[in-house]
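We emphasize that the prediction below concerns an isolated chain of 166 residues; any contacts that depend on oligomerization or on bound cofactors are therefore not represented. The input was used exactly as deposited, without trimming of termini.
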Amino acid sequence: MHRVMIVGDEVNVLSALRRVLTGIGTQGERLEAEIETFEDPEEALDRASYTNFDLVISDYRMPAMTGVDFLERLIQIQPNIGRLILSGYADMPGLIDAINRVQIFRFIGKPWHDFELKATIRQALQYHDVLRENQRLADLVRMQQGKLSRQDLELKRLEEQYPGIT
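Result of the prediction step, given as a token string:
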């Protein structure tokens, strides 16, 4: 099961996103996702410090901090989290900033089309799964070559599963 964090300052948008993303999947393929929403970016950062998430969807403009600033801080806690930014503003410099500073997977405009949003989420989660599997296989090869001990591999796995444990 995947864990998705949604951060934004508009309760109605958070509710709509949760409703759209419940049980995302295509016919014959369901991606189950546990979705948590946060109105306060600081609260979301606190939660991320002890709970692993696969994907975050952040609003670009929030009163407390911008979505890019939030994602920059989140990456320090969970560097491998998938990142999407949602915005109702056609802000090209902001979009370029998001791409350059926090390497977002996609930029989603408001209002969104449900089908496109679901497809984007599916792609982001599948991409995250592929990256995780590639990392696991690379670590296995490093362990077989003697460049990584079993203990280091287990510590790495635990840190990914439970951020801050090590």
